[in-house]
Amino acid sequence: MQRVVASLAVVASLALAARPARAGCENTCDVVLDPVSTTPTLPACAQATLSSQTCLCEVWLMLENSCATPLDTVDFGFQGCPAGGPCSVPPSARNSVALAVDGDGKKQWLLHVRNDNTDYALSISATVANFNAHPSGCEAGGAPGRKADPVALAVGLAALVGLVFRRRRVLPGVAGRGG
Question: 30-129: what fold?
Fold first, then answer.
């Protein structure tokens, strides 16, 4: 019973002492995205959506094509396409591209796609703050703003060390009881 209680104490104190992990990101930032505007409006079968990744401070454009014809890029490419050249999103497919961010402030991109012989301009904008605020990496996991509790960590480590030494003391006695 003592082992169970001690084990629970170790686990609880280490959990309380947990810090968010650093993922080793090159840049971090906070990104607020504006909706994509298109001129003319994309057909209902094509969608352009934005997302952001604060760990690498990137804005992602995803194109989803439910049209009967391909959605061709005009002045940009996706990963896996010929070096920065145009490529297509076939019917019933999607693809995305990362748009690099280089600092704080309002960022804007103008990209072009073509569908069924019609060109569409995609206006993308985002507001970036705290660029490279955590250059050693982004926080992953843990509660936001939560700091490690050194007392809980010390209690957990002491309990763990106590378990190891108690087990070493008890083991020789256990072997002698059988005979």
Answer: Immunoglobulin-like (2.60.40)
If phi over 0 gives left and psi between -120 and 50 gives alpha, with beta otherwise, what is residue 136?
alpha
Domain boundaries, the chain: 2-19+147-177, 30-129
83-125 tens-digit pLDDT: 656 689 999 999 999 998 888 999 999 999 999 999 999 999 9
CA distance 176 to 179: 6
Residues lower than pLDDT 50 in the chain: 5, 8-22, 137-149, 164, 177-179
pTM tops 0.70:
no
Q: C-alpha angle with apex 165: 161 to 169, nearest 5 degrees?
A: 165
